[in-house]
Amino acid sequence: MKKNVIKTLLIFLILIGGLINAYSGEFDSAMDYIKKTSKLWGVSKVILNENNRITLVDRKKQGHGYALGLMNKNHEWIDEITLKPNESCLLTDGRHAFITYKLISIRNSNIVIEVIDKFDARSFGDDIKEEMETVTIKPYKDNE
Predict the structure, then answer these.
(1) The whole model's pTM is what?
(2) 112 backbone dihedrals φ, ψ, rounded to 5°
């Protein structure tokens, strides 16, 4: 029992540390990061597939958004997801941060994605903050 409590506490501290790190430094928010870098928060790789589809790969080890997990429409944790136009996925810590990526279209290798960034800061004495933007990115692969 004591080991489970310690393990749970360590996981919680790692997640909180990741969130604090995620929202500090050179970018004001996940949306700010996306707009300035043309990369998706918490996504290490964006692959352009045939038939107007893309694959997003969850960032697992380091970098902006690594503490969040990728979730499909059935609320199952996944490592990657392939989307066609008008399909979406969720990147979340399951408690405070919720980022929805919806594929709008693909035009000349430009990927148009609607991003909804919602952060519930009520536990920290603040309000729920929500931003929505449509961004255009290119396929990429980060080194993790």
Answers:
(1) 0.79
(2) -100, 120
